[in-house]
TrEMBL record:
Protein name from the UniProt record: Integral membrane protein
Keywords for this protein: Membrane, Transmembrane, Transmembrane helix
UniProt-listed Pfam families: DUF6112
InterPro entries: DUF6112 (IPR046094)
Organism: Nocardioides euryhalodurans
Residue ranges of the TM segments: 39-60, 72-95
Amino acid sequence: MDLLTAALLLPLDISIDPNSNGLPGIGQLKKIVGASMTVGLVLAVLALIISAIVWALGANSSNPHLAGRGKLGALVALGAAIVCGASVTLVNFFWNVGQQV
């Protein structure tokens, strides 16, 4: 079978859409992912608080290395919060981009 014959045998109109009732446990999986997002956001807040404390201690004790670590930790905590908060929107955006291909 050559490539042209194989290509002609493929169905030309495939339509598959995601559904939320195709597998058991989808509702529970959504709850688990939502809880994971909450845990991620709470940990980001904790990391931001700890980083701010380290930054303040470093700045007030004239320790630039400690202050730098605090600044970096604050940026990482804020980045983690952005990723946790925007993850659903980012996935939906790229899903919509993929649907246009």
